[in-house]
Each structure stands twice: as C-alpha cells, then as structure tokens.
Write a structure and sequence with these properties.
Blueprint lengths: L1 H26 L27 H12 L2 E6 L2 E7 L1 H10 L6 E2 L3 H7 L9 H17 L5 H20 L6 E2 L15 H8 L1 H4 L9 H21 L9 H11 L10 H32 L1 H14 L15 H14 L8 E2 L4 E3 L2 E3 L4 E5 L1 H4 L42 H18 E4 L12 E3 L2 E3 L4 E6 L1
Parallel strand pairs: 2-8
Antiparallel strand pairs: 1-2, 3-5, 4-12, 5-8, 6-7, 9-12, 10-11
Helix pairs in contact: 6-15, 9-11, 11-13, 11-15
EC number: 1.14.14.1
Protein name: unspecific monooxygenase
Organism: Phrynosoma platyrhinos (Desert horned lizard)
C-alpha cells in the first residue's frame, strides 16, 4: 500500500503544479494588463478569500485593496469583478455592446445549456429577447390592460388574506398566495456556482437542480402541448401561442432559434423573472414594514389621502404618492436582490481602463456596491425611505438605482415588476394592517445570501383588516 500512496501523492503534486502553472500563465497574460487580485492557490483558486454567504461584502473588502476592477479565481475559472458605480456604468452602459454577453454560471449552464433568454448569447439571445419584449408589449406590458390584470390578481390575494380573519399566519417558508417558488436555495447552491468542479462530487440539495429543472421543463412541455392542440393563429392567448406561431413561420429555416427547447426554457425564464423576484421583494417588504410600523403608518396615510378606501389603487396614483414610491425603491435598494447581477462576459480581448480583459472572461458587476454607495445613500446599511425623497418631500430619482442591472442585459420585465410591486403593496396596505408577532426591535431584516440572489429570514405574519 505504501508505493501506491506515494504514487498518489506524487500524482496530486504534479497535477497541482500543472494547474498552478496554467493559472500563473493566465495571470501574466499580456503582462501587466490583467486587473490585479489576490494570488490563487492550485485547484481551489481564491476559495480561502471568498465567503460565499456574504459574497458581496467579501468583494467590497477586496476592492478596498485591489481597486474597482480586479481579478478572482473561482476554482480554476478566472473572473473579473466590477465594483462601484463608475466602473459598472462604464462597462454596462457606456460600453454596453462589449459587455453584453452572458457569462458562465454553473447552475444556469447545467439547467439551461445556453438556451432561452437569460443564459443565451449571440444571435439566439438577440432574437429571443426581442421576441419576448415585443410579445409582452403586445399583451399589454406597461399598458392599462396588464394593469387591470394585476389589479385582479391583487384582489384575489386580498380575498385570501381576508379569509384568515386576523388569525392565520403567513410564513416565508412557503410562498404567499399567488406567488410560486420553483427552486430551493441553499448555501451549497452558491458554492456550486462558484466552485462547480468540486461541488459536482459533493452530495447535497444542489444535486437536485437538474432533476427539479427537468420536472419544471416537463410541466411546461405538457402545458405547451395543450396550447398546440388548441392553437388559433388568428387569436393568440399568451406567450406560448405566439412562440408556436413564430415556429410555424420559420419551419423551413434550419437555423431558426424558435425551437421547442427554446420555447420551454424561455417560458421558464419569464416565469422565474416575473414571479420569483417580485414575490421575494414583496416578502422582504412585508418583513421590513413590520420592523418599522411608523413607516407602514405613513404609507397608509398617503394611500388614504390619495386613493381612499373605496377604489383600487392604480398606476396613475403613484405620481401623487412620493412617500410610498420611495418606500418601494428603498426596499429594492436595501435588499439588493441580485447582489452580483447575473454574470456578463466579454467576447473578445477588451481594453478596459488600464487593463486588458481576455476574451471569454466572466464579468461580475457587484450591484450592491452601487445600491449601497455611501456617497449617494447616506447610511446605506440602514433602511431609510429618505434616500429617495427630496427635502420638500417630492420623489428623488437616482442613477444609482440598479436593482434590475443596467445596459443591454437589464431585466426585460423591469416595467412589469415595478407595476406589480406598487399595486400589490398598496392594495395590501390599503386593506390590512401588518401585525408583528414579536417585538419589532427583535426583527432581523438582514438579507441572507442564497444562490445568486438573497432571501429574507423566515418569519411569520398576521394581517388585521383596517
């Protein structure tokens, strides 16, 4: 057994040396041009410097040492971090085309395989995103028709809350009525994103990603089959119908991106982007307002003054409700739902500031560094609606408000999400008072990092009719 053990140790040392050599060569590529960063170790890269539970905070500390543009190694993969408003604006907005590619994200790679809208690139991404935006607009995104549908959904939620009669408790361990959570989120999933080569061998909930994704895909496929069987091309009912019509129009185009695979993944992308993010933000909002009942009271006073109790809130009311608008913006700013955005990439060797970012490098813009900028938002770690209010009480806009990212990859459903958040939150607070079940001072609103997003800490809530 001794010779075998020695051979194994020597083999590991040789592999480690080869990997270290490869990493060192990549670090010195075009010597002096690659952004600086901490020295990586063989195989594990910068794992010892990165705390995945508080990744955005870790990157903030590293930026203090290495500057707003620096290099990290997640395992053996090189990534470049952008920290702060100026660096992120320069990359995603001023040079949007160069940074528009989607970067590698292990969970996205194994679940989507480059298909759909969120994780695709090149012509596929352009065509599917353009089609999705056009279809959503045709179905009323940003118009009165979609507003009325959201109002109807809000009314349905109110009826369910009314049935609780102030007794039933809502817990974030399960989603609020009307919202669906599709994927479990754990620290292991975050590790799987950051160090995929190692985590693929470690058992845990992250191993259920592919099976769960397949189940979701099967569900969407069955729904799509029903749509196909009852399709009327002259009267499309929804996104799936429109996609099928486009597929039929391009049936003789062998290079068409409108395939059944892209239909399934694109539908899944829109579902996740349009429900999960909004529901998580709303759950955060209800938790935060329990901690600050005085803020809840001011919102309700504004609702009573502008909307009253006899009609449903509508988007036209928002312009007359600066405080409520500021509270919603502050919820999004404070939680920083997707701290590192969804990764970008450069498709060619890209000069950026005094560096050159090599082709194919994944780019992580740390959105938290913008949303929590202390110069733009005094005391950024504190929840304070005054961050979005002028001294005279009017609403204050800010270029630093980037919860939906920025540039060409900005969330396609931003307008819809804004509408949903305003109508759902105002409808709930118009009709109910939130009743905290513990002392508000004991409520912890610090977000928990999970996968590529944050989630609120589990809590219970009771609503009382006003």
């Amino acid at each position: 057994m001794e010779p075998l053990g020695t051979t194994t140790v020597l083999l590991i040392l040789c592999i480690s040396c080869l990997l270290l050599s490869a990493i060192w060569k990549s670090r010195t590529w075009r010597k002096g041009k690659l952004p600086p960063g901490p020295t990586p170790l063989p195989i594990i890269g910068n794992a010892l410097q990165v705390k995945t539970n508080y990744l955005d905070q870790t990157l903030c500390k590293l930026s203090e040492k290495y500057g707003p543009v620096f290099t990290l190694y997640l395992g053996v993969e090189r990534v470049v971090i952008l920290h702060g408003y100026e660096a992120i604006k320069e990359a995603l907005i001023d040079r949007a085309e160069e940074f528009a590619a989607r970067g590698k994200l292990h969970i996205g790679d194994i679940a989507r395989k480059g298909q759909g809208i969120i994780f695709s690139n090149g012509e596929r991404w352009k065509q599917l995103r353009r089609f999705a935006l056009t279809t959503l607009r045709n179905f009323g995104m940003g118009k009165k028709s979609i507003e009325e549908r959201i109002q109807d959904e809000a009314q349905y939620l109110l009826e369910k809350l009314q049935d609780t009669k102030g007794r039933k408790l809502l817990s974030t361990s399960s989603t609020l009525v009307g919202f669906v959570s599709c994927l479990s989120r754990t620290t292991l999933r975050q590790l799987s994103n950051s160090f995929p080569s190692f985590m693929s061998f470690i058992p845990g909930p992250h191993q259920r990603i592919v099976p769960n994704t397949m189940k979701t895909n099967d569900f969407i496929l069955e729904e799509a089959k029903e749509h196909r069987a009852t399709l009327d091309p002259s009267s499309p009912r929804d996104f799936i119908d429109c996609f099928y019509i486009k597929m039929d129009q391009e049936e003789h185009n062998g290079a068409s991106e409108f395939t059944i695979e892209n239909l399934i993944i694109s539908t899944f992308d829109l579902f996740i982007a349009g429900t999960e993010t909004t529901s998580t933000t709303l759950k955060f909002g209800l938790l935060i307002l329990q901690k600050y009942p005085e803020i809840e009271e001011k919102v309700q006073e504004e609702i009573d003054r502008v909307v009253g109790r006899s009609r449903r809130p509508c988007m036209a009311d928002r312009a007359q409700m600066p405080y409520t608008d500021a509270v919603i913006h502050e919820i999004q700013r404070f939680i920083s739902l997707v701290p590192l955005s969804v990764p970008h990439a450069v498709v060619r060797d890209t000069p950026f500031r005094q560096y050159v970012i090599p082709k194919g490098t994944t780019i992580y813009p740390v959105l938290t560094s913008v949303l929590h900028d202390s110069k733009e938002f005094p005391n950024p770690k504190e929840f304070d609606p005054r961050h979005f209010l002028n001294e005279d009480g009017t609403f204050r806009k800010s270029d630093y408000f980037m919860p939906f990212s920025a540039g060409k990859r900005i969330c396609a459903g931003e307008g819809l999400a804004r509408m949903e958040l305003f109508l759902f939150l105002t409808s709930i607070l118009q009709n109910f008072k939130l009743k905290a079940l513990v002392d508000p001072k004991e409520i912890d609103i610090t977000p928990l990092m999970s996968s590529s997003t944050v989630i609120p800490r589990p809590y219970r809530l009771c609503v009382v009719p006003r």
